[in-house]
Amino acid sequence: MGRMGDTCGAVTGAFMVIGLTYGRIRADDELSKEKVYQLVQEFAKRFRSRHGSIVCRDLLGYDLSNPEGGKTITENHLTETRCPLFVQDAVEILEEMLHENKL
User: Fold this and answer.
1) Domain map of the chain by residue range?
2) Is the pLDDT higher at 27 or at 17?
3) In percent, how much of the chain has pLDDT > 70?
4) What contacts 24, CB < 8 A, 6 or more positions away?
């Protein structure tokens, strides 16, 4: 996300879907807040089990935030070859979780 090399954009997008689906509407809704925290942690656990990390630099093996890493990622077409798998897996995990939680 934003070439920072931190949390994978596909993972962040899934976190946003979870928050929008189960998040609190009222500031004092602590039950919804806790449900979102639990679901986000579960999503991260499942994604990590497939890929070993939720961090971009770990997933790609290079740090996109520095020029050398960015050049290697570009030259090896890693965002075209690896990132679609991360997006696909994020969607699959999210669909499983939404179904399990009876959206």
Assistant:
1) 9-100
2) 17
3) 98
4) 30, 32, 33, 36
Q: What is the C-alpha to C-alpha distance for residues 39 and 18, in angstroms, rounded to an integer?
A: 7
The answer to whether the beta carbons of residues 43 and 97 sit under 8 Å apart is: yes
9 Cβ neighbours under 8 A, 6+ residues apart: 1, 56
Length of the chain counted residue by residue? 103
Residue with tokens 């020029």: 67
pLDDT digits (tens, 9 = 90+) for 60-99: 999 988 999 999 999 999 999 999 999 999 999 999 998 8
For 28, other C-beta atoms within 10 Å of its C-beta total: 7
Identify whether the C-beta of residue 73 lies closer than 8 Å to the C-beta of residue 60. Answer: yes
Q: How far apart are CA 67 and CA 89, in angstroms?
A: 28
